[in-house]
Amino acid sequence: MLKIYHASMTRSLRVIWLCEELGLPIEVEPISFHPDFRFSEEWLARNPVGKVPVLEDGDFSMFESGAMVQYVLDRYGDGRLQPKPGTTRHAEYLQWNWFAESTFCRPLGEIVNHRRNFDPPFADVVAEMVHRSEQCLKAVDEALSDRDYILGEFSGADIMLGYCFILTENFTSILDKGYTSANTYWQRLKSRPAAHVLTRDFAS
Ligand SMILES: N[C@@H](CCC(=O)N[C@@H](CS)C(=O)NCC(=O)O)C(=O)O
Questions:
Q1: Is 12 buried (19+), middle (13-18) or exposed (0-12) by CB count in 10 A?
Q2: Given its phi and psi angles, is residue 23 left (phi above 0), alpha (psi -120 to 50 degrees) or beta?
Q3: Can you give the CATH number for the domain in which 188 is found?
Q4: Where does the record place the GST N-terminal domain (predicted)?
Q5: What is the rounded distance in angstroms from the CA atom of residue 88 to the CA atom of residue 83?
Q6: Is 70 in the pocket of ligand 1 (CB under 6 A)?
Q7: 157 and 95 inside one domain
Q8: Ligand 1 pocket: which of 52, 97, 103, 113 to mutate (most atoms <8 Å of CB)?
Q9: What is the pLDDT of residues 45-89, one digit of tens each?
Q10: Is omega for the bond preceding 53 within 30 degrees of 0, making it cis?
């Protein structure tokens, strides 16, 4: 059975949500997000930079949430939730996956890190990262002007983007600045039956 090491509000939610969408059984192992644990020898052996999440499939262990989503889909998805590899549709799917983690989540992650590590956070840095996040939100909003999901039909790319919206909603107020298509999309994602796992408390 797939085992996902999970800390509240972290990118492990992507894998948990994906498995719920696919109806795959999964063991969720709640872990401490405290640096003492994340930089312990035990955790660094699983994630060499002390980050969350980690996925195990039997003896195999991996880090990087986007790679996990792709692995689960390729291995257990039976062609669901992603276009056929090698097609331009699949290229579009990859584009949004990478956009989600390396372009949209990047400034959002810096906002989170600054709030956690600096008291007070560097206001100019946070403002710049909010601005960068808003550029990404605008791009998603525009792409969604004629569709319900980022590729038209729901796919793994929506799960990748969905995590960006969790951070956007919790750590910025840019969703309040309009962006109707993006706001409607986020409500649509959250109302999917499988998305109940996003608010589940796995620690108890
Ligand atoms: N690209 C990585 C990012 C992992 C990441 O930044 N995880 C966050 C939690 S969602 C974390 O562990 N942050 C701690 C830190 O950066 O100090 C992935 O997708 O797994």
A1: buried
A2: left
A3: 1.20.1050.10
A4: 1-80
A5: 9
A6: no
A7: yes
A8: 52
A9: 999 999 999 999 999 999 999 999 999 999 999 999 999 999 999
A10: yes
* Burial class for 181, CB neighbours closer than 10 Å (0-12, 13-18, 19+): middle
| Mutation choice for ligand 1 from 10, 51, 116, CB with most ligand atoms inside 8 A | 51
Q: Tens digit of pLDDT for each residue in 115-160?
A: 899 998 889 999 999 999 999 999 999 999 999 999 999 999 999 9
Which tokens sit at 12? 């492990």
Do both 75 and 98 map to the same domain?
no
Residue type, 135: Q
Range 189-201 average pLDDT: 97
Same domain, residue pair 65 and 100: no
Report the pLDDT value the prediction gives residue 108, as an integer from 0 to 100: 98
Q: With contact defined as beta carbons under 8 Å apart, do 140 and 149 qualify?
A: no
